[in-house]
Amino acid sequence: MLLPIPDVLTADQLRRARQLFGEAEWVDGRVTAGHQSVRAKDNLQLPEGSPVAREVGGMVLSALEQNALFISAALPARVFPPLFNQYEGGQSFGTHVDNAIRQVTGTPHRLRTDLSATLFFTTPEEYDGGELVIEDTYGMHRVKLPAGHMILYPSTSLHHVRPVTRGARIASFFWIQSMVRDDGQRTLLFDLDVAIQKLTETGSEHPSVVQLTGIYHNLLRRWADV
User: Fold this and answer.
1) What's the rounded Cα separation, in Å, for the pair 73 and 182?
2) Which of 189, 112, 191, 120 is nearest to 154 (CA)?
3) What is the C-alpha to C-alpha distance for residues 82 and 60, in angstroms, rounded to an integer?
4) How far is the C-alpha of 97 from the C-alpha of 83, rounded, in Å?
5) Which of 77, 28, 177, 32 shows the shortest CA–CA distance to 117?
6) β partners of residue 141
7) Burial level of 148, CB count in 10 A (0-12/13-18/19+)?
8) Of 112, 134, 118, the residue nearest 181 (C-alpha)
């Protein structure tokens, strides 16, 4: 499932984050690259655990906890602390696949990467290039969203970031371990949840709404790994 999630952050949150990013010191992004992707990665990154990364990361996590679309689609069990990167001056990230397991720096905790997320902090008009290109069975999808919007996609997907030829592209990226590891099962649950919500919004009191809700929770109970 490839899903855009709009308005994760408010305009005030974006302004605060952009102010902090402008005052921060960025380092070579290869510090967090895996063995395979280190050869393809050319960007800048905020150091993990830096004050700016912690503040904006906390802002992102708090916003996600309140985002119903994200919760419904991801069914998150654990979310990796958000990381932040910047592309400029022709920088890019070649085709790669995300590591299956990520260890949270400075802790013994590991996370299975079921879903990957990119949250944009710069508007499409601020830079040329920089599209996130995600490959799946339906072809290649170019993603370049408004500031504050996020794309959610399976971590099994091959993907790359095209060179930024003007301006700078700033984004957050992180991974989610879902309660339901199988993407097909998550998609079925998401589609069912959306259908139930639409029926509920119409004010329908038909017994089928309760039956469908029961089916949703029984499937989640069967598939969830918690």
Assistant:
1) 12
2) 112
3) 7
4) 17
5) 177
6) 134
7) buried
8) 112
Q: 3-state SS string over the chain? A: CCEEECCCCCHHHHHHHHHHHHHCCCEEHHHHCCCCHHHCEECEECCCCCHHHHHHHHHHHHHHHCCHHHHHHHCEEEECCCEEEEEECCCEEEEECCCCEEECCCCCCEEECCEEEEEECCCHHHEEECCEEEEECCEEEEECCCCCCEEEEECCCEEEECCEEEEEEEEEEEEEEECCCCHHHHHHHHHHHHHHHHHHHCCCCCHHHHHHHHHHHHHHHHHCCC
Question: Distance (Å, rounded) from C-alpha 10 to C-alpha 63?
Answer: 9
Dist CA 76 CA 175 (whole Å)? 10
Tokens of 206: 């038909």
Q: What is the mean pLDDT for each group of 10 consecutive residues in the chain (226 residues)?
A: 97 98 92 66 93 97 98 98 97 95 93 98 98 94 98 97 98 98 97 94 84 97 95
CA–CA gap between residue 43 and residue 26 (Å, rounded): 10
What is d(CA 202, CA 205) in angstroms, rounded to the nearest whole number?
Answer: 9
- The size of the chain, in residues, is 226
Query: Count of CB atoms within 10 A of residue 196's CB?
Result: 17
Q: pTM of the predicted model, to two decimals?
A: 0.93
For residue 174, give both structure tokens.
């992180």
